[in-house]
């Protein structure tokens, strides 16, 4: 499939319960946040009146991208290997660490397209690796 001048080389999707993220944060505090989210993601989400839908969407995005890579969360791709920030129009902006950049190159991909959404209870992310 040709998309935005490139071919699709990987697809991933994930659905996360917002209550699960809220519960993990309540139980484990800052340790949970630091293990799962980059400092930039934490600052972005925790500035919101209710940060949990945004945190859950970012968690789902990390899982979706790991599925698009075909690795899952592992030594090659840590939860903090990817940071999902907000663009000027509210669109998700993907930032990768060196490990994730290496995986992207190994897949012959140049970028990750990402879509996030949530309801009151669930957050979903859809990721596409494009060459």
Walk me through the structure:
The strands form two sheets. The chain has a four-stranded antiparallel sheet. It has a two-stranded antiparallel ribbon with strand order 3-4. It has five helices and six strands, in the order ββααααββαββ. The protein has helices at 18-28, 30-36, 39-46, 52-69, 98-106; strands at residues 2-3, 6-17, 82-86, 92-96, 111-118, 122-130. A hairpin with a 5-residue loop joins β3 (82-86) and β4. α1 crosses α4 and α3 (39-46) runs antiparallel to α4 (52-69). It has one domain (2-130): Alpha-Beta Complex (Ribosomal Protein L22, Chain A). The N and C termini lie close together (11 Å). With 131 residues, it is α+β, with helices and mostly antiparallel strands. The model has no long low-confidence stretch (mean pLDDT 94).
